[in-house]
Amino acid sequence: MKRIEARIKTPFGEVVIEGDSxxxxxxxxxxxxxxxxxxxxDVVFKRLTLSKVQLKGIIxxxxxxxxxxxxxxxxxxxxAGLILYASDEHKNTxxxxxxxxxxxxxxxxxxxxLNEMTKRGQVFKPDPNKPEFKLTIxxxxxxxxxxxxxxxxxxx
Length: 156
Fold this sequence. Notes:
This protein is α+β, with helices and mostly antiparallel strands. The chain has 2 domains: 1-37, no CATH class; 56-155, Winged helix-like DNA-binding domain superfamily/Winged helix DNA-binding domain (Arc Repressor Mutant, subunit A). It is built from 6 helices and 7 strands; from the N terminus they run E-E-H-H-E-E-H-E-H-H-E-E-H. The strands form 3 sheets. A 3-stranded antiparallel sheet has the order 5-7-6. Strands 1-2 form a two-stranded antiparallel ribbon. Helix 3 crosses helix 4 and helix 3 packs across helix 6 (137-155). The longest helix is centred in the first third of the chain and has 20 residues, at 36-55. It is elongated.
């Protein structure tokens, strides 16, 4: 039997509900809390706004990806960490991080920096077969608390 789906457009995106019958979709809809859309909108808005405000003057999001725009001195580790932090899901490929750092005016041996950051527990490879690195929770906290806060203090 074919599955059917209902697509519901919301302020934060689209919710898709699938089922085998219209009745199954209606039953699922009845289990959604009354203020679901409002709560989701608030969560999405807070996350996106916090991220944009927090990185203003440090990172600019471009079609190419996040570019570092601050003129404050950054170590190569901090620069790579910022690029990963501003990337989707806090992860990116070595090649893309290298390109984004070059677009930011920073020349770095990215593979070596990322390997050293792995030893420090700041990044890891979600899939050992792919050249992709992702910030660990410890790496995210390091970028937020040490790197971004230091840059914000210097610019304020």
